C-alpha cells in the first residue's frame, strides 16, 4: 500500500493546530520532528547516533508529518486550512507532498526505533528486538505502524511517567485518543482492571488492536473508533482518564472528564504546547481539579490533575 506523506515546516506555536488539522482530516499517522527537543534529549543521555537522524538534529524548524491513503483527495483542504493557521499565528508554513510505501515505513521504524526505558518500570520494546527484563521492569511490546504514539515524543513520555508513578492497580481507565495503544498497554501492564480506548482515526484503532493483541491484553483493553468526548460521556465511575492529544481537545473534554471521574480520580493531560498551557490550567481550575504535577520538556507540557 502507498501513502501520501505531507510534511509541514513550521514553528512551535503552530504545531498543535497543524497536528489537530491532520487528525481532523483522517490522517493515518502523525509524526512531530522537533530538533530542539531532540537536542535537549540527546544532551541528557549517552546517545547512539544510529538511533536518530543527524539531519533532524541540525534543523531549526519543526516538521509535522502526516500520512494519508494514496487515494484520499485532501490536498485542497490542507492548503485552505494551513492558510488559516498561517493567518491565525502570523507565521508562514511550508508544505511538501511525498509518497511512501508501507514496507519503507516499516523498515524505517526498524532502523531508528529501539528498546528504551521510561520511569522506574516501563520498557518500550519493538517486537523485532530481544530484551531480558530486570526485576520489577514491565515490558511493552509495540509496533507503531502508521499510528501516533511510540513513547519517544515528550507528550507520550509524560503520560507513561504518570502511569508509572500514580497507578496503583485495579483502576478503570479511559484512553482518550489511543493512537498506537501504548498508554492503554502500559496501564494494563501496571495493573488496571478495565480500559476503554477510543480514537477517531480508524488506522489508529486497527494498530492499537494489533498491539494490544501482541501484548495479550484483549481481555482488559476494549478499543473502539469514535468521538472522544462522547466516549467519555458514556463512561462513569472512572479512576483515570488518559488524554495525550492537543491542548484544544484536552480543554474541551475537561468538564465531561470531571463528571465521568470518581472523587479523587485523575486526568493525565499531554500534547499541550507551552503557549496553550495557561488556558488548559484555567479550565482545570474552573472545573474543580487540583493540579498535582506538571512536567515540561522544551515547548511541551504534561499535567496530572485530581478531581476534588
UniProtKB/TrEMBL annotation:
Domain of life, per UniProt, equals: Bacteria
Q: Which reaction does it catalyse?
A: L-lysyl-[protein] + 3 S-adenosyl-L-methionine = N(6),N(6),N(6)-trimethyl-L-lysyl-[protein] + 3 S-adenosyl-L-homocysteine + 3 H(+)
Which family is this protein grouped under? Answer: Belongs to the methyltransferase superfamily. PrmA family.
The UniProt entry, under SUPFAM superfamilies, shows:
S-adenosyl-L-methionine-dependent methyltransferases (SSF53335)
Pfam families hit by this protein: PrmA
Q: Which keywords has UniProt assigned to this entry?
A: Cytoplasm, Methyltransferase, Ribonucleoprotein, Ribosomal protein, S-adenosyl-L-methionine, Transferase
Q: Name one GO cellular component term.
A: ribosome
Protein function = Methylates ribosomal protein L11.
Its localization reads: Cytoplasm
What are the protein's GO molecular function terms? Answer: protein methyltransferase activity
The record's HAMAP family line, in alphabetical order, gives: Methyltr_PrmA
Is Cell wall biogenesis/degradation a UniProt keyword of this protein?
no
Protein's GO biological process: methylation
Main EC class the enzyme belongs to: transferase
EC identifiers of the protein? 2.1.1.-
Q: Which InterPro entries match?
A: Ribosomal_L11_MeTrfase_PrmA, Ribosomal_PrmA_MeTrfase, SAM-dependent_MTases_sf
Provide the residue positions that the database annotates as binding S-adenosyl-L-methionine: 156, 177, 199, 244
Q: What is this protein called?
A: Ribosomal protein L11 methyltransferase
